[in-house]
Design brief:
Helix 8 (288-297) runs antiparallel to helix 10 (337-347). 29% of the residues lie in helices and 19% in strands. It starts with 6 loop residues before the first helix and ends with a strand. The protein is α+β, with helices and mostly antiparallel strands. Strand 4 (74-79) and strand 5 (85-90) form a beta hairpin.
Length: 515
């Protein structure tokens, strides 16, 4: 029987769990939603794949909630005074799940070969790298072309996972059988995947961190229906509900259940930011005054307080406040109907009806679309809400077949890694829903982003990003909505459930069950 626990006590338990004595043993049942197409995160990097695969694969570094790097497969590292040379010393005694030793050769293979062919995010990072070498089995050296301060934040498990050379070298990476039964170095090993039902991971007894993991097994349960996911937690069949797994309107009821804890931690690295794509190629979205009017029309405080139950915060611009180099700059866009109407008149807007494409991620997003429709129609912009499934949304946004469309993207620890891709002219390319989909182009901003990416030291980067944020605030290429808050809901018996900036996907090695 769960017992009722106050919110303040729940927070105390979460923050002080590290001081309690961890107890080995037990299993956790978590939700994975939707079921991932693969958990081989060298090629599949959507949220559900990372949730499971992050416990199988690792990278050189982890990051704390302030995005400070911590040891993972690298136990230590140094950066040269000129910012060009990063030298990593690998952990001792690391083994792949099939018993083979992990060495620097695996890091080189992953960085120079596999990921260069299979992961665009990694290729983008490596444009700043001149060479990756290994003077011995325990040392890896990255030599950069120019200082790139963001590099140290680009070595997370899902941006540069280390993969087994002896499994993949000389094979077709996309069809290698190991993709279905992944072999990593992480705290948990793949055991079974019963499609449509669950994914089962078991404790890695040879894990190089002494005493970890504490848990014996993890079950990632596939429950397609949102209401059923909520019921599964209510009845105790599920121990952990990852952020975004249930509808927002169910969260207040679930968090009030006896012996239930919640946390918003574990999203600092991803820093999900939501906005409306405004198709800058088409009238009236090609007019900056129209785009500014949209910003003033939106009641974003309502969206946060009512649709998201107070989780997250209103976005002030293109950078999440969780990111380095964030600054709250002018102009600001509070909800102001009169100002929106005035700008629409100045823009010469003729009342042309526009179509709004919601994110097909559940009832919460549909309700948000209805709220935005009401906001825009209140200032005189007629809106028709369109319907699309996930595949249809991907196709429409990738091919620029929309007027206004919802989205949210991860910011990946640094604006040079996860932000400038959405605004630079060079990132305008059909076929990708995660780049410059709105078609905004400003040569001055392109130059600012290019200079800021490689400026050294960090203080110089801050100056340039301040200018870039101000320019974007003025031009409003997209309509920024919220820094999304995705609370993890879990049984309070689970301790140390979030210990890094990436949350559940790599914190299970630290989690344990209080008896």
């Amino acid at each position: 029987m769960r017992r009722l626990i106050s919110a303040s006590l729940a927070i105390f338990m979460t923050t002080t769990a590290a001081f309690a004595q961890a107890v080995p043993g037990g299993k956790l049942n978590l939700i994975v939603q939707p079921e991932p197409p693969s958990i081989m995160i060298g090629t599949t990097t959507n949220g559900p794949a990372l949730l499971v695969g992050g416990n199988i694969y690792e990278s050189l570094l982890r990051y704390d909630e302030n995005l400070k790097p911590e040891p993972s497969l690298a136990k230590s590292w140094t950066v040269s005074d000129d910012g060009l040379t990063y030298t990593f010393t690998l952990q001792d005694g690391v083994k792949w799940h099939d018993g083979k030793s992990m060495t620097s050769a695996d890091v080189l293979f992953s960085a120079n070969d596999y990921l260069m062919k299979m992961q665009p995010r990694h290729r983008n990072l490596m444009t700043h790298v001149e060479s990756v070498t290994a003077p011995d089995d325990k040392t890896v050296v990255f030599k950069l072309k120019q200082p790139f301060e963001a590099f140290i934040r680009g070595l997370a498990f899902y941006t540069m996972p280390v993969l087994p050379k002896h499994i993949y070298e000389g094979t077709d990476y996309a069809t290698n059988p190991a993709n279905d039964k992944p072999i990593g170095t992480g705290p948990f090993k793949f055991d079974e995947w019963k499609r449509g039902s669950y994914i089962h991971l078991v404790k890695n007894p040879d894990y190089y961190v002494k005493g970890k993991p504490y848990l014996d097994e993890l079950y990632y349960q596939v429950i397609p229906d949102g209401a059923s996911r909520s019921v599964a937690f209510e009845t105790g069949n599920i121990d952990v509900v990852p952020g975004g797994s249930v509808e927002n309107f169910d969260i207040p009821r679930l968090k009030d259940l006896p012996n239930t804890c919640t946390t918003e931690k574990g999203w600092e690295y991803f820093a999900p930011l939501s906005w409306l794509w405004l198709n800058n190629r088409k009238a009236p979205m090609d007019n900056v005054k129209f785009r500014q009017a949209v910003m003033y029309a939106l009641d974003r405080e309502f969206a946060k307080d009512v649709l998201w139950n107070g989780y997250g915060k209103v976005a002030t611009g293109p950078l999440s406040s969780k990111l380095p180099f964030y600054k709250d700059v002018e102009p600001k866009y509070p909800h102001d109907v009169d100002k929106a109407k005035k700008l629409l008149k100045e823009a010469g807007y003729d009342g042309k009806p526009l179509k709004l494409l919601p994110l097909p991620y559940g009832e919460t997003w549909q309700r948000w679309a209805e709220a935005v429709k009401q906001n825009l129609e209140e200032v005189g912009i007629p809106i028709e809400i369109e319907a699309a499934d996930v595949a249809g949304w991907n196709q429409r946004t990738s091919n620029w077949e929309y007027d206004i469309a919802f989205t949210y993207l991860y910011q990946n620890g640094d604006p040079a890694i996860g932000v400038d891709r959405n605004y630079k002219t060079s990132q305008i390319a059909k076929g990708n829903p995660f780049n410059n989909v709105e078609g905004y182009s400003n040569p001055d901003l392109d130059k600012l982003f290019d200079e800021a990416a490689v400026a050294y030291p960090a203080s110089k980067r801050q100056e340039l990003y301040d200018q870039a944020q101000k320019k974007l605030q003025e031009d409003v290429p997209v309509a920024w909505l919220l820094e999304l808050g995705f609370p993890t809901i879990y049984n309070c018996k689970v301790q140390d459930i979030v210990t890094t900036a990436s949350g559940l996907p790599e914190s299970m090695r630290d989690a344990w069950i209080k008896k």
